[in-house]
What does this fold into?
Amino acid sequence: MAMRATAAAADHGGASATAPTHAGPSVAELRAGQRFRGDFACVRKDRLTAKNGSPYLTLELRDRSGSIPARVFRDVDRLSARFQRGDAVRASGKVERFRGELAAELDDVRALEQGDFDPADFLPAAYRNAEELAGFLEHLIREVHDPALREVVQRVLLTEPVGKEFRRAPCTRGGHHAYLGGLIEHTVAVGTLVGEISQLHPRLDSDMLMAAALLHDVGKVREFAYGAEFELTEEGRLLGHLTLGAEIVGAAAAELDRDRRASLLHCILSHHGADGARAGQGGRGGGFGSPEALALYRLNALDAGVKGALEHGLQRAA
It folds into this structure.
């Protein structure tokens, strides 16, 4: 895939004075019979053969307002060589109605170079207000009453560059909370659930559980790259967000009591299941090392599963 993306791409929080300008109408503004020229993400590209033997391309163009199927019938080889699936493209053509649905017939399409587009124009974003989510996060951080643990959480989430990326990142590329701001939205939800379960089960170490909940997915700030689509960074592909998160939190918790630090890292490493966090223990087998780790695993899965069902349906979420 030829997507031109880096983790240092334009920030979702607001365009700078030098930010590129989105060209043309959005997908939602397209109408049958309309000629257009605009910038979109190409999220699907297939080369097919018509019944008469001539090749054509079928595409899906997307921006933050929606998506539209598109086809290329003329100069197929020349135009196809100018872009790949996953590129941001500038396309021109005419909107038609095909089998009752809008579709675009393109006469020109080319890839945009990195720096010529703002990823926020193409990537889906959270519906919830970003400042509201940031306020909820700060409130939950104050619910960590252990000063040493709270200091670790603040050092990670309220300082740069992690703080900025944490507010921007998606939670997944195509599953639950797969949009800009999805990571902080999911984290706030899990932290809220921690407050509820801690009242039901007061023997839980609520400070440890809340700190772990707020930090459990922080590795995702280094897992994703931003362009016309969400992609993985190289370290995200090779290491994954559990390892990256443990690296980030481990460094911030260097002065924490050794056993407390180990408990916090265990919760983070086991929030998708216990096996990975306790690998290499020989015949002792797996299993969660603390009730807090088990609670975080369940609460994380609860929010992810319910959100996935609401976004994608019960069958896919399961």
